[in-house]
Amino acid sequence: MDLIYPRHCIGCKKPLKNTATIENIACAGCWANIKKNRPPFCACCGRYIDWKTSRSKVCNSCLKKELHFDRAFSACIYEGLVKELIHRFKYRSQDHLSPVLSFLLIDFIKEFNLPPLEYFDMLMPIPLHKNKLREREFNQSALIAQNLSKAFGMDVSTDNLMRVRDTNTQTELPPEKRFLNVLDSFSVREPAKIKDKMILLVDDVLTSGATCSEAAKALKSNGARTVFVLTIAS
User: How does pLDDT run across 180-195, given as a tens digit for each residue?
Assistant: First the structure.
């Protein structure tokens, strides 16, 4: 198999034959170079913030936005190997990468106990519109949520939060237009099931926060008490 389909590291592109690998997709060196998010965290988006030089425990970017979720956390910085893995997972239908990416989140939660899962009633993945789901054939956020559920024994709700508008891809838009792009794009099928609940939204990447914020707005307007966000990278 190595003669016909030689394996190469997704990060550095070097051959993986006769070297230590992570699930036969990346070399140990590239995996070790993944940049993890470390405290102190912004009290809103969860990215690193130097509280000694900041006037607030919220980063400057979050101070300029109205975000409807209560707090967010991301395991990694969105660059290098992590960025390449997420792109392959999300846009090239490589759903076999789900366990590897989920491991980064599981490791982050175990290291920092963030978010504290014992306080949440359910995991809820960011849904895809039916058109995108038909095109992609799977919801990457739902796969991640299911892996977290297996690791921590949490309930997952995959059909209550719905995407009711087929929006443009956020990556093609400047930050200032992303909030308008997802405006009123989510709804809740059964509000009674989330009334007074603490919900942990799961997605792959947090960039502007627009998508998760709009989903949180829909959940809170339908009775959810608290909405946190957890992503692989930001």
Answer: 999 999 999 999 999 9
